Amino acid sequence: MKIEIWSDVVCPFCYIGKRKLEKALSKFPQKEAIEIEWKSFQLNPDQKTNINISTLQHLAESKGWSLEQAREIVSQVAGMAEKEGLSFNFENAIVANTKNAHRLIHLAKALGKGGEMKERLLKAYFTEGLNIDDSATLILLGIEIGLEEGIIKILLESNQYEDAVDQDIYESRLIGVKGFPFFLIDRKLGISGAQPDEVFTQTLEKAWTDYTKENPKLQTVEGSAHSCEIGGEC
Questions:
Q1: For site-directed labelling of 227, which of 33, 172, 178, 180 has its Cα 20 to 30 A away?
Q2: Domain-embedded: residue 111
Q3: What backbone torsions phi and psi does residue 7 show, to the nearest 5 degrees?
Q4: Handedness of CA 122, 125, 128, 134 (dihedral sign)
Q5: What mean pLDDT, rounded, does the chain reach?
Q6: Is residue 191 classed exposed, middle or buried when 0-12, 13-18 and 19+ CB atoms within 10 A define those classes?
Q7: Is residue 234 part of a domain?
């Protein structure tokens, strides 16, 4: 059974949702039969990389908030992340376009390391304050998970996998995805956003039942979960 996940590497709820899914899978008896496929999505494809401003400052300016207001809001998100064992540092996070990061994930996916690359990029952005649109940084991160420096350089010096990123985004629109992360299980059941733990567990169980019965019906669990929307609204 396959789980396809549309998310961005600068989406806080995408990182939180990733941990929630991993927690549910750790308790799922059939976890060895589950295949994870990471799909690209850019919350703000027109975002210009700016190393001179933090994500916290960018958020305050784009929303018309004071730094104190922005800090209070992101602290709530950081608190949610902490419950999942994650450390978010918005004051050090660098505003960056994510197209190249997604291309790198596609390269890693082709080599059987998509999950490792996704995790490394999320940590680099949210915890370590690294510029995930910087070629030298992307090369080092790729090498860390076992990719060869030469193939990463070829990627970054070309338009390799740009079409794959665009196709993922187009596919999300065809499906009607509106909130991110979005988890599509066996093309039948969907989870929108970083839902409560029990939603992941219950949906996995139902998906497995449907999978064994070859039920093609698609249902999406939306509710009031935390998610990021198209345009960068979180």
A1: 33
A2: yes
A3: -165, 165
A4: positive
A5: 93
A6: buried
A7: no
Contact (Cβ atoms closer than 8 angstroms) between residue 29 and residue 209: no
pLDDT band at 215 (very low <50, low <70, confident <90, very high): very low
Question: Which DSSP helix (H) or strand (E) runs through 2?
Answer: strand 2-7
- CA-to-CA dists, residue 105 to 70, 138, 195, angstroms: 30, 10, 24
Specify the CATH number for the domain of residue 88.
3.40.30.10
Beta carbons of 102 and 9 less than 8 angstroms apart: yes
Q: Which two tokens stand for residue 84?
A: 């999942």
Residue 36 lies in a domain: yes
Q: What digits encode the pLDDT tens for the residues 35-52? A: 999 999 999 999 999 999
Count CB neighbours of 70 within 10 A.
22
